[in-house]
Specification:
Layout: H1 4-17, E1 21-22, H2 23-29, H3 33-41, E2 45-49, E3 52-55, H4 56-61, H5 64-79, E4 84-86, H6 87-94, E5 107-111, E6 119-121, E7 124-129, E8 136-139, E9 142-145, H7 147-158, H8 160-172, H9 177-186, H10 193-202, H11 210-221, E10 228-235, E11 238-246, E12 251-255, H12 267-283, E13 287-291, H13 293-298, H14 300-313
Parallel strand pairs: 5-7, 12-13
Antiparallel strand pairs: 1-3, 2-3, 4-5, 6-7, 8-9, 10-11, 11-12
């Protein structure tokens, strides 16, 4: 075990700088690099970048995305202020959701000629390309591209499904679609830009979770109109919000997250409330279908099939029109 004095000195560095520290942070604080080496040798520190460290206990307790976020911060700090995290690394630092597991290493971009070769290291990859000053930003100590640039980069490299999730979130945060569209035009000759253009055209600021974004994507990828996100429906003196509404079919789709009822002492109350809610909505002649993560990730066509089945089971009754996009308090 490291000595108490060593731990106290390094703990002070973490308090001041956050969960990632550099050797130069120790230099500036008058802490000998030998202290870092001793704690590293004893397994109390983990090297996560060039001369960058995190507490081993922190890394062992971190989720895969949190560990990747810390490695991305370390890569940014080691690369310097002319290098900006992009793609999954920027998404992790900017708290923009993505689909699936994080990549092995973060990526970064330096403003410059895109034909200049990539720089690779065990801790990350850096490329050159178009990055105007307006899309260069910082989160804490890490230098990243803007949320808008991050969305375009993810869509270019990961495709439309993975791109729609961060795009919905960034639009919901207040970034204008025109900003994304301008970046698509500026990057028009870059590989994968067609995917980014599709994502910008179909993103929806009303989607409130990655699961809802993927539910919309199931219809879009099938060449069908996307459902309306989070419409408000009044019934029996109450207002309910539907995750998705297919207005022409009179069908409500509910996105059931994996932990909606898990490990909750009030699970029975929630289930009862959901049953009452569904009964009231059906009383208005809405069809209702549900889907979860397994469908959104592995069987998106099942989401469409369930919606179509719910529409068929309505047996030709008039399509209800008692819904609005405006929340009840807007009146």
């Amino acid at each position: 075990m490291g000595s108490l004095a060593d731990r106290r000195q390094v703990s002070a560095l973490f308090v001041h700088h956050g969960p990632v520290i550099l050797s130069r942070d120790a230099d500036a604080a008058g802490v000998s690099r030998a202290v870092l080496r001793r704690l590293w040798d004893r397994g109390e520190l983990t090297r996560i970048g060039k001369a960058a460290f995190a507490a081993t206990q922190t890394m062992e307790a971190a989720s895969p995305w949190e560990a990747f976020r810390l490695r991305s911060i370390a890569f940014s700090l080691s690369a310097g202020p002319d290098t900006f995290l992009t793609g999954a690394g920027a998404a992790a630092v900017l708290e923009i959701p993505m689909v699936g597991d994080p990549p092995d290493r973060p990526s970064a971009v330096r403003p410059g000629n895109a034909h200049i070769g990539h720089d690779r290291s065990p801790y990350g990859r850096t490329r050159h390309g178009y990055l105007p000053p307006s899309h260069q930003t910082r989160r804490g100590r890490a230098f990243t591209v803007s949320p808008a640039y991050c969305v375009i980069d993810i869509a270019r490299h990961y495709g439309t499904r993975d791109g729609i999730v961060p795009a919905d979130r960034v639009l919901a945060s207040g970034v204008h679609r025109e900003v994304l569209a301008k970046l698509v035009d500026d990057l028009n000759r870059y590989p994968g830009i067609a995917s980014a253009r599709w994502v910008v055209e179909h993103a929806d600021s009303r989607a409130e979770s990655p699961l809802e974004s993927l539910g919309r994507f199931a219809f879009l990828s099938a060449g069908l109109p996307a459902p309306v996100s989070n419409a408000w429906i009044p019934v029996a003196g109450q207002w309910f919000r539907a995750d998705h509404l297919l207005p022409e079919q009179g069908v409500i789709l509910e996105a059931d997250g994996a932990v909606k009822y898990d490990n909750r002492t009030d699970a029975s109350v929630l289930i009862s409330a959901d049953r009452d809610r569904e009964r009231l909505l059906r009383s208005l002649s809405f069809g209702i279908a549900r889907y979860g993560w397994s469908h959104a990730i592995g069987r998106p066509t099942e989401i469409v099939r369930r919606a179509q089945e719910a529409a068929r089971l309505r047996s030709g009754r008039p399509v209800p029109t008692c819904w609005t996009l405006n929340p009840p308090w807007a009146a």
